[in-house]
Amino acid sequence: MMSKIRVTIIPVTxxxxxxxxxxxxxxxxxxxxxxxxxxxxxxxxxxxxxxANNAWAVGVVYPPTGGTRRALVLRYDxxxxxxxxxxxxxxxxxxxxxxxxxxxxxxxAGDHRAGIxxxxxxxxxxxxxxxxxxxxxxxxxxxxxxxxGVAAAGGTVWAVGTYVDPTSSSxxxxxxxxxxxxxxxxxAAPRVATYETLAAVDATGSADAWAVGSATSDIQSxxxxxxxxxxxxxxxxxxxxxxxxxxxxAGIDARTSSDVWAVGSSSTAGGTQPYVAHFDGTxxxxxxxxLTGGGELTDVVALSPSNVVAVGRSNGAPLVxxxxxxxxxxxxxxxxxxxxxxxxxxxxxxxxxxxxxxxxLSAYANRTLTMRGM
Length: 374
Known about the structure:
Layout: E1 9-13, E2 16-19, E3 29-32, E4 41-51, E5 54-62, E6 70-76, E7 81-83, E8 93-102, E9 105-114, E10 118-126, E11 131-134, E12 145-153, E13 156-164, E14 172-180, E15 183-186, E16 195-205, E17 208-216, E18 225-231, E19 236-239, E20 246-256, E21 259-268, E22 271-279, E23 283-286, E24 296-304, E25 307-314, E26 317-323, E27 328-330, E28 340-346, E29 352-360, E30 365-373
Antiparallel strand pairs: 1-2, 3-30, 4-5, 5-6, 6-7, 8-9, 9-10, 10-11, 12-13, 13-14, 14-15, 16-17, 17-18, 18-19, 20-21, 21-22, 22-23, 24-25, 25-26, 26-27, 28-29, 29-30
């Protein structure tokens, strides 16, 4: 995701900054109605916004009788969430990432079923009235190729994910696609482990992008380690992110080149807990509250240095943590039946959208979930 609604920072003197606005106060969270296709199971996986009246959420709908899945795209126009037509998308597809530069410049990424047992990468562009699927490469033609995140900045678009290693079906390799000059290509990055997957990407410009996920030497027996890659305009390099136990990164937001947040989860003998890291020139782990019943974070929105919101799930309930400039605080969220919060996006300069899905008992099916903190 790419969060583009920012609190303004004005230079005052060398080494000093004035933040317009006061330190973040607790947000008031409400559930906002969002459409679901009925019948069917509806899931939202990613979100982004360029303005308070231009927020997007993407996912998938599964028919109740096991038919062909189809992409799900919602847009908030300032007054309500509405479904966007799928015309131009290939069908039998799933979307996990979205990058909204404007109402007429939106990118989505995911996968499209290819043949009986394969999946091809899928990237499409919205010009304000229609979708156009773009030609994208696959690292494992005829095999499994899945995209999870997309970002656009400085005339470059990135999409990241994973593919099944053709030489070893138990292993995954990271997958990075780059669009520059109007066409897509595979972008090489150093291999750091036998099993690698990328979950999210963000960029501040054509020469500054981060992609995050997890890696391990053996998915069956070895712990996961955070995977963080940085693009400097010419190549990707691996960065060390401190962590203990098994740690996987799921979301990232690069507010500036020296103010980057990454979130996920860490697993130890005591269970799974939220994980947060911050980059200010070097990656540092940032302490989060220990949650009874555990929890995980899936996405993050950095509105200012003292107003960062991370979302996820804890003990069968939505999880929202807010950074106030000195510490992370858990926020109160509306109740919902077995909810799963998967993505986040700005809602104006000081608000945040959290999206995902919830279980509706009366229909015995999953429905879209959109919450707003203001």
